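Q&A log
Question type: sequence-to-structure
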Amino acid sequence: MPSKVDLKGFKEFQAKLKDAPKKLFSEVDGEVEDAANTWTGFAKRDAPKDMGFLARGIEPKKVKEMHYEVDSNAEYSAYVEWGTGTKVSVPSGLQSYASQFKGKGGSAEDAKKMIYAWMERVGIPKEKQWAVFISIMTNGTKPHPFFFIQRPIVEKELFKNVENILNTPI
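Response status: OK
Response body:
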């Protein structure tokens, strides 16, 4: 279940840009692209690195002018971001989005294979694997925010940069 967020040209700025010179429009598009790239870099930096699949799956994509998406395409992105089981913690404003992932995980057998493989990689002795597996399946995993925590940082910088462009005489 991929997680993604759109960085779009913001409506209040689009109105100002409607009759603006093409150069100005292009500069704002560049700022939105930079914001998408910054978000991507921060999310990759903050993503857990066990085998690196999660971080490698975070990419920006241009949809159209002033509209970029940042996508985390690992099926388990949402579960890492917000945790699982009794440890789920979804920030306000994201509950509706997060609800689409509830109960959509794979089978218990798939979970067991992945958890056992992880325990082997981190050196948990085989005799403790069943207990750890049961604990994870019963209690869940703690959240490891890496994706959506970037939003306020990136938005603040994007708004500041776009405002500077719009307030600079042509």
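Response note: The chain is about 55% helix and 10% strand.
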